[in-house]
Amino acid sequence: MEAGGGAVRGARLDSARLGGPTRRGREAPRRRRDLPPGSGAGWGGPWRAQEVGGAGRLKDLTTLKNEVKTPKNLTKAERMLLTGGLKSLLPHLLRRIIRCNRHSISNTSGMAEGYKQANIVILHKSLADDFEKFCHANNGPLPLLYRSKPGDWKCPSLSSDSDIRTDCPQYRVYEHGAFTRSVKSLKEYSEQLKDMVTFYLGCSFSFEKAIQNAGIPIRNVEQECNVSMYKTAVPCYSISTFCCNLVVTMRPIPESKLEAAVLATSELKEAHGAPIHIGDPGLLGIQDLSKPDYGDPVHLHPGDIPVFWACGVTGVEAVINCRSPLAFTHSPGCMFITDLKNDSVTVGSSSEVPQVYCISQDPLHYSMVSAEATQKIKNLENLIGIDPGDRGIIHLHRPDELLKACLAISHARSVLITTGFPTHFSYEPPEENDGPPGALAIAAMLQALEKDVAIVTDQRAMDLNKKIIDDAVQLGILKRPVPLLSYRRENADSALTFLCENGNPRRPRFDHLIAIERAGMAADGNYYNARKVNIKHLVDPIDDLFLAAQTIPGVTTTGVGDGGNELGMGKVKEAVKKHIKNGDTIACDVEADFTVVAGVSNWGGYAIASALYILSTCEIHDRYLRKAVGFPQLLKKKIWLSALPSVTKEEKLLKALVQHGVRSGKTASLEMEVDGLPFYDTHSLMIEKLLQELKQ
């Protein structure tokens, strides 16, 4: 399903999962709402009754109407409040209302539309430099708008007439990291404030107008409540005594509007910018959306997807953990409203245009990538999709499978690769040389990206594969040996036990499985080469792992093939039966989540390595991966570049395979060829074309 003209694949969110336990065994601590009564949870929230009698936001207007006898008694701001509400009130008038404490305002979401709002952190001057560094190191949640001088209660670059002691609807007081009270004014602390520095940090309320202009509903405003805020399991980059986990806001967004919401906010970097997560909250360590840590629960409508933005309340958590003798913050949702307008931002190049793709249904998970990176990966897919053997593989092609597969791999922490097609049953070894080079190209890039990677193969081929891996290390293809595993089916739970710690599907050892030119099981349970010869006696049932992965939440799979009889090609088996010679018999029956079809399977491996490089150098994807905390990873670009396949590397590896007796698949030749195609200038040219695409 297309969303906002973009590339969001249709998905459905299981609402029961949103209130359930964290997926995949990453248990988060039991969540609690640690705001006491009267702390300003928002319109209609559970603490509202104790603060203003439980009437919610409308109480302000009702009280105002009842208390004012005639219009002459009203200030200009109060007349606007009665006629147009707080939504259209100018910031300086709103601050005046807040300062005079004439009316109860428990959060500022939806107020002063189009103007920037700010989170507030006030610390002793001795901590100010470190906190500023902490903000710069985590500028997604903590975009710094202004830092005051000690004892300076104004912020001239943000507002012409303000006093930070009085201009937030409510403040929180912290002593040695403990929240002690909420107050509506900090004037009683004026003496202490002379030695304190105020930090004004960007706020997501600032982008609400941009979201509305894109035709997207803001559910918390509709429901007259505060936004939902949650502590996550994502650690921020620590600076000195400032360390904490990321806090996020959640806004329900209709699935069809996901990409529009991302586009509307991506360039508003002073208001946290683009979302840092779209989909299942369990992936952030959030157990239950109905129990926010700050603010109010916001209800999802049918078809809504939870979308999470970095939140300035992260600063509150940093204050708590630094245990300063005295500190102040705004009460979550009770922002400082500036005089600065949110100017409309025009996205420039395609490298700045975000696109959204669904990469998993269970748990529901979307990823983000630039339009420029997307197009490059599409170009890779087109390059490898040619059919040099004229076997009809063009009919197996599914667009964007390479992109989605690599997005899923990019999010994975641990990847299991399998390869090996013993097509030459009358030779020893029976393996062909299509598969291992592609598998090692992927493994090399995964090592460079600091992911855990292992290879699983047939027990009878363990010695051969160990020699090949050792050669790859000596040739500089791999930085270090890849762990080599074998799988045996001993009982019905063998696959689950292999993939998960103690067979527990909530604790998988691998996030993603890749099969490249791996013999795949046909519908009759046998394994066939392209000539319809049954080679089952040479193949261990590694297909079991892919079938088991379908039952493990959070584990995704990719199959790479060039003929339809490879593991993972079950997704296109009907096309294989119709268009590939002997397809009715040889078609693999086991599906992968993503199917990468290439003229030669090795090319698919080279393309995956290249696509992972493209994603890693994409600023939009990099930010999304690290949840907008810490620093961009682009300084590692040289390491990633050195891990890419090259003509020289692949020529040396093919020579090593020949020395081990590994033959060309089509001809059984021990010459410098793969699938009957010469290394020069067929495979070498493909490698050069793929690398050239990275330079575009």
From TrEMBL:
Residues 1-47 are annotated as: Disordered. Its EC number is 4.2.1.48. It catalyses: D-glutamate = 5-oxo-D-proline + H2O. InterPro entries: D-Glu_cyclase, D-Glu_cyclase_mito, GLUCM_C, Putative_hydro-lyase. Pfam families: D-Glu_cyclase, GLUCM-like_C. One of its GO terms (cellular component) is mitochondrial matrix. Keywords: Lyase, Mitochondrion, Transit peptide. It is found in: Mitochondrion matrix. This is D-glutamate cyclase, mitochondrial. The lineage of its organism: Eukaryota, Metazoa, Chordata, Craniata, Vertebrata.
